[in-house]
């Protein structure tokens, strides 16, 4: 018997809140929520993310948190890679994103995230940046865990 394992795609901002500390109390509240999301997902689902998310994660930690590339790489290697499947962005992903962008009025970057989540058979996408509880093609539910 083959069992289907649920997959959840996690967007950049959820990793950022979980893996950084901020002086802002609102960010600290989001950190607690993000850590809770990961605790739940690790126990019950396969976590998927993309090379795009890793690139955005690095960019944000270098620019906003003033970390060196090597420090961010170590954070990724020690915290993200052990719990996440990393999906590539292919030309097919771009093609799917183009269709999704117009059909669901998504930004270019968000459409790539959604396309990658769909390509990897995820049923949930955790993101702060997209419409909470939006259903994409009756296949993917977007959840903003901070709502």
Question: Would you give an account of this structure?
Answer:
The structure is a single chain. This protein has 147 residues and is of the alpha/beta class. It has helices spanning 12-19, 25-44, 51-63, 69-80, 91-104, 108-119, and strands spanning 7-10, 46-50, 84-87, 124-126, 135-136, 140-143. The longest helix has 20 residues, at 25-44. Helix 3 (51-63) crosses helix 4. It is built from six helices and six strands, in the order βααβααβααβββ. It starts with 6 loop residues before the first strand and ends with a strand. The protein has a single domain (7-143), classed as Rossmann fold (3-Layer(aba) Sandwich).
Overall tally of domains: 1
Task: Fill in the CATH topology.
Answer: Rossmann fold
Alpha-carbon distance between the two ends? 38 Å
Radius of gyration: 15 Å
Top-tier CATH class:
Alpha Beta
Strand order of the largest sheet: 3-2-1-4-6-5
What share of residues are in beta strands? 5-15%
Q: Biggest β-sheet, characterized?
A: 6 strands, mixed
Looking at the overall shape, the CATH architecture is 3-Layer(aba) Sandwich
Number of strands: 6
The assigned structural class equals alpha/beta
Order of helices and strands: EHHEHHEHHEEE
- The coarse silhouette is globular
Low-confidence stretches: none
**Helix proportion:** 40-55%
| Mean pLDDT score | 94
Fourth-tier CATH superfamily name: 5'-nuclease
Q: Number of DSSP helices?
A: 6
